[in-house]
Structure formats: C-alpha cells, structure tokens
Amino acid sequence: MLVLPAYFDGETVKTVDNYKFSKDQKLMITVLDEEEEEKKINGIKTLRGSLSKYANPKLIEKEKSAWSVAAGEKYGIR
To answer: Taking 70 as the threshold, does the pLDDT of residue 36 lie above it?
Structure first.
C-alpha cells in the first residue's frame, strides 16, 4: 500500500508528487474533512500554523539571516 498526498483542483484529483499510475490500477481514496482533521501529537491538539494568517511573505526571505544581523547590531564591532 502506498499513501500519496493529493488534492482536488475542481475537475480532477492530482497527486502532489507526479506519481505515474499503471492502467487499471486499483485505488483507495480517502477524503479528509479539513474541519475534522485536527493535528494531534500524543492526543493533544497542536496550534501549528494557527498564526499563519499574520505572516508577512516579504519578511520570510530575511529569516535565514535575522539572527546574525541582530547579533551583529548588538555585539558587532563599533
């Protein structure tokens, strides 16, 4: 059994990784209800992604160097 992440684009079901199906391959499709699909770790609901609506895409590219820039400003040579 192979599990493939996929999505429905309004017309067809598409896999995230371009998996090649063989002709007449049997499939088992499970539809996930987003409201019921709560991420849980050890039985506890997580809040991962709950603040994504506040993300600023323009600042994401600066994240890799944010610590070194802040440390340089605070402790750098003057």
So the answer is: no
